[in-house]
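Predict the 3D structure for this chain.
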Amino acid sequence: MGKSILTIFIKLKLNKMGFFKKDNIYRITRITSSQDNILGVTFDNKNKSDNNIEVIEWDFPNIDKSRIRTSKEEVLEQVLSGLGSLNQSLGTNYKLSQIYFSPFDSGTNSVYNLLICKLIRHYHSGNEFKEVEVLDF
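Done. Predicted structure below.
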């Protein structure tokens, strides 16, 4: 028996990535039926020799803050791993100065590794990041 159009539409809407930019922070969101994530980064000057990355926890209103699910260390490790492999694959030297994330999102399955790779590929290809004014993230 085939899937209904409504079921397919719901799955497409719930498994979506978005690319946004505000105040020189490039953001990627991943919305699924079981897990949502957001990652933001600020690119660093490629000519700098040191690469001290500041990891910043976003504080969102109206979310359940009873359980922290992801640590700064976990996000940094996943992002650096993804960034390193993508730089090698693309022959680039992208560097970051800041990483933004929500500690209330789950970091399972190396999701931040995936997100940084998708974000950098989107950026590297010259694709659009929607400028946001209203969203507070």
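The beta strands are 16-22, 25-31, 36-43, 54-57, 96-101, 130-131.
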